[in-house]
Fold each of these.
Amino acid sequence: MPQIDTEVLSSYPPPAAFADAANATSDLYDEAEKDRLAFWGAQAERLSWETPFTDVLDWSDAPFAKWFVGGRLNVAYNCVDRHVEAGHGDRVAIHWVGEPVDDERTITYAQLKDEVCKAANALTELGLVAGDRVAIYMPMVPEAIVAMLACARLGAMHSVVFAGYSASALRARIEDAEAKLVITTDGQFRRGKAVSLKEAVDDAVRESGSERESTVEHVLVVRRTGIDVEWTEGRDLWWHDIVDPASTDHTPEAFDAEHPLFLLYTSGTTGKPKGILHTSGGYLTQSSYTHFNVFDVKPESDVYWCTADIGWITGHTYIVYGPLSNGVTQVVYEGTPASPDEHRHFQVIEKYGVTIYYTAPTLVRTFMKWGRQLPAEHDLSSLRLLGSVGEPINPEAWRWYRMAFGSDETPIVDTWWQTETGSAMISPLPGVTTCKPGSAMRPLPGISAKIVDDDGNQLEPGTDHGEQANGYLVLDKPWPSMLRGIWGDPDRFKETYWSRFAEQGWYFAGDGARYGKDGEIWVLGRIDDVMNISGHRISTAEVESALVGHSGVAEAAVVGATDDQTGQAICAFVILKAHHADTPQEQMVDELRKQVATEISPIARPREIHVVPELPKTRSGKIMRRLLRDVAEGRELGDTSTLVDPSVFEAIRASK
Ligand code: PRX
């Protein structure tokens, strides 16, 4: 029998017609290869600079990078005004789709400019100046995007906090950033119901809960649902009272390329979230460049839709700064995919003629579960490109996505990146790359990444990936949209990202990866104590600290176990204090689940909580999470020889 090369069978070259019209050709790789810094200098010319930069990169104070040295620009001007000035004011910037059916708004670039200017004037009236921090805690309403751009216009930093986070998570982020202003809504629609949001802000800024006096001077509230809210006179203000009547005239000030643009908190390996700092010129350059080339956007004709929330980096880069800097028309949807029923996304694609759709593997798997007939009932022929982000996409989901959404024709871009990288780093170019389902393929032109072993030796690409050892994914050269630090904690920045390969000066991403047969990269997932639940980053330490915050818990250990639907699921093992020995276990588990939802967010609620008599520990007292993962995933136990008491597992298994 002839040998079948499965690698060839499962490779997907770009369709010829797509390749012919694609924004990016393979020349980009050659140009970047020839002179990386000159290449980035050329990409920065995508933007409008008030003062040109004199140097592309200053890496003398590594790992603190300075890109586009001496350049000055206004990020909001680049995202809005310049499109209006170029005669595209009537182009739709946002087709906004609210969760309630038929609650829709269309906002042109000219209208967006007016809204951003009004908000910038109103915020200035409130005393906001460049460098101040503003917490934004809002659902996916247009005002959230307007608020972000108004901050950018004034040189104030936004810190968007996902509206699914609890009051205490919001409080921690407000306090760490010392935010002066919080922008929120009265409430939000969730599966047809209006639920409060401002209440969480009230809790978060209440003096009594904190040792420190709140830095928050004002809470600016958009009326979204009309539900009743408590009001603190003097502090609370309605958006419609101060933004709506403000002037639409506002002259943008240019800021240094390294002026801070935003903070975005993300989970690390400790319980304390890190405020990832991004700055202006480099971040916007790479966001704009990657959005243009990876998503192949044609601003005159495409309707782009990224289904992320602005509370995450994907929403920042590929809803706000990437698409708007490119003058693209996009759909922004407020609700969940099943509201009012599972047809919603397909109806939106059909109604607006969406051409580019960017989502997360967990949602693709949800659609798979709902079944093939659902997309088959809709005309999805407008789609010409699909994207994936947030976690490795399993080949089965990749193939289904292409078949059900893309008539088995459209290219898929599987984009690997992180909150810290600011924008996409490893991804196919849709008109160039022959893709293998499940692999993010190669670093984008201008980006350098390697897979290395413990000692920093590069693994050998080209062997069969089945036999290839796994290694660490590192970024061995600085890139424009790299994080510039962790807010208020330069040592943690160095320690977290730059200490593993300090000698070489490489950034360690926290992911394991391996090379495939043709040198492509297969990202395997986190190898630190960070979990990835439906593409959301949650640290084991964060959940453990929420659990031990309950008066009945003596100790807790948390692991991420593989889950068909969500990628990973949270499994917790807890030891109860003696005085809770008689509380029924079910009641306790219920309380603990609630505790995690209140302390962090419902997205961090454990799938399983096991009450156990002991936790597996090494002689030095370290919890052996690897073994707990074996238990959670029902595997044979790995090496238990370093355990103090290997018999603890009988008791742990008995509790499952
Ligand atoms: O483990 C990788 C995974 O998500 C992590 C970054 O999470 P976050 O900062 O929340 O940003 C998510 C959106 C950019 C990475 O360390 N990850 C992200 N995209 C992929 C991925 N893993 C595999 N393939 C991807 N395409």
Amino acid sequence: MFNSGLKKKNIELNSALELLKERISVLENENNRAHAILDSMVEGVIAVDKDTRVLSLNPTAEKIFNTTRENALARIFLEVFPNNDIAEVIALVLNKGKFVSRELSLVWPVQRVFQVNASPIFESGAVNGCLLVIHDITEIRRLETMRRDFVANVSHELKTPLTSIKGFVETLLEGALDDKENSVTFLKIINNHAERLNTLINDLLDLSHIESKEIILKKDKFALSSLVDEVILGFRSQAKKKGVEIKTELPHALEVIADRSKIEQVLTNLINNAVKYNKEKGSVRIYSEQFPDKTKIIIEDSGSGIPPKDIPRIFERFYRVDKARSRELGGTGLGLSIVKHIIELHSGFVGVESTEGLGSKFWFTIPR
Ligand code: ADP
């Protein structure tokens, strides 16, 4: 009798133990799932208690604040993350028990812009902590600024020749038309400005076409030296006027696989610059270097060179070392960014080495 009672109790205990094990396993699974979600989030997530002690943080948060879980856990938020703006957001959430969203700039450990969303954590109806979700929006803000700058630049570039055209047309209409000699001069100036507008719009169309993801390269195998010879032919008179000598040292047998007309545009833009920014009686040398995986083409000039501070930005749209000089020479500031885009479409690279006053070496690579 006594034995069977004990047996029953034992069975009851065993099944309670099984149930407990099952519950623990369910909880463990849930916990693992929650951790997996947190660990894979691109947003930084930090939870703090009501004294702002760090309860948990995910790997993205560790990365953003250049810290580790071991270092951060159980410590006061401001001790680990010396950022007053975020601490202020946490204080607001803990005090008011309401969701707060703010855009904050972080200067340490890196300069970035974050969207910080903070929610209260409730326990038995009272605020017991705060959950921060930190979203890095630096890239979005950078692209927005770039787009704004681009629109401003295009408007400015279009406005300058248009203002001149309008001015000269008005002068002609107000009577200068009767002055034969001056009116021809004015018409020539108008023509130059119209030409400038045309070049600018063509460059903009090229750029937008190249930047659009729909572009399909028509790749062929062709001899590079004959393409370079064709391009040089177009610069003969411009180079002759300046006394600039263009030398090509490309092997006749050198063939590349690429979109011929696009590479023609790259060569045209680079050789144009090499002549344009050259000194009187200067020289341009075009040669290649062969690597197992790529062909490198170098366009070397004996021109004005580029100051080191301008080199990192030289391939940006509308970036010019000397705006007035570029305009005077018929430049749009878009040539090099077109070059960069075309080469990147070919999975190649572009670059420049330059010494002020001595000249520049612009190069690009085409994978073999
Ligand atoms: P641009 O139409 O003004 O020539 P690019 O995009 O082709 O526009 O070039 C951007 C700027 O880079 C130029 O305005 C010029 O200041 C500089 N640059 C380009 N190529 C050369 C070169 N070979 N020598 C010196 N400066 C150059």
